[in-house]
Amino acid sequence: MIEVRNLSKSFGANKVLNDISFQVKEGEVVAIIGPSGSGKSTLLRSLNLLEEPDEGVIKVGDVTVDTKLLTHQNRYELRQQSAMVFQHFNLFKNKTVLENVTLALTSSKRKTKAEALQIAEDLLEQVGLSDQKKQYPATLSGGQQQRVSIARALAVNPKVIFMDEPTSALDPELVGEVLKTIEQLSKRNITLVIVTHEMKFAKKVADKIVFMNNGVIVESGAPEAVFSQPKEERTRKFLLSTREDATLEYVI
């Protein structure tokens, strides 16, 4: 579903991504972990060209682009393959919950208003927000807003959903409801790539863990292998540091 070859990105003299290559299978849930500043979010944003890499090849679904030869058309085609869930929700504040979910359906997916409403109402029911469909984002909790953004991502029927630290902007008591929603998605054969600092969640939900540090992929593999028997010293040190912080316990 995703193939990345030799992806690099610099901001001035700071090389944030350094020759990154990896693959994600269809239906796979991949959790990208690592310390702050390791390049995790930049990698995710580069995969749908919110950040434009300096070089490298990105394949998502049926679309392959050489980032040195980007055109308006292949930017558009690549972005049509995926949807993004952001740290800070990025909802339209002047639109209701229902309008936030239907907007992309009527504008870019060319659905009729009736079709868009049906899809949106079904998805809002799935994320437990049917009763809030006429409310505006400012009246919702952070957890509810993030669940709206997940419904919005699902609405366009993407081949991949990218999630960039989807719980980092939430108060601790609201994190669990969003993680439950993502876990439910992970059981539906939807390809997910999630940047997260929730280690217990990553271990439970992901099919593959990717550990990044200083702009490179240090180690990747099955959760049990990476968390229980990491091969690299940098991975071991990072995991030991996260154990000192009590990560969230949540009930499904």
Textual characterization of the structure:
- By secondary structure, this protein is an alpha/beta fold.
- The chain has a domain at 91-157.
- It contains 9 helices and 10 strands.
- The chain has helices at residues 40-47, 72-79, 97-107, 113-126, 142-155, 172-186, 199-205, 223-228, 233-244; strands at 2-11, 14-24, 29-33, 55-60, 63-66, 82-85, 160-164, 191-195, 208-213, 216-221.
- The strands form 2 sheets. A 6-stranded mixed beta sheet has the order 6-7-8-3-9-10, sandwiched between helices. It has a 4-stranded antiparallel beta sheet with strand order 2-1-4-5, covered by helices on one side.
- Strand 9 (208-213) and strand 10 form a beta hairpin.
- Helix 3 (97-107) packs parallel to helix 5 (142-155) and helix 5 runs parallel beside helix 6.
- The longest helix has 15 residues, at 172-186.
- The model is unreliable at 244-252 (pLDDT under 50).
Q: Helix segment count?
A: 9
Give the overall shape. globular
- Name the poorly predicted regions: 244-252
Q: Could you give the order of strands across the largest sheet?
A: 6-7-8-3-9-10
Largest sheet: 6 strands, mixed
Helix content: 25-40%
Provide the β-strand percentage band: 15-25%
Radius of gyration: 18 Å
Question: What structural class do the secondary elements suggest?
Answer: alpha/beta
State the separation between the terminal residues, measured CA to CA.
28 Å
- The tally of beta strands, per DSSP, is 10
Order of helices and strands: EEEHEEHEHHHEHEHEEHH
- Average pLDDT taken over every residue: 92
Subcellular location: Cell membrane
InterPro entries: AAA+_ATPase (IPR003593), ABC_ATPase_HisP-typ (IPR030679), ABC_transporter-like_ATP-bd (IPR003439), ABC_transporter-like_CS (IPR017871), MetN_ABC_transporter-like (IPR050086), P-loop_NTPase (IPR027417)
Membrane topology: Peripheral membrane protein
Pfam families: ABC_tran (PF00005)
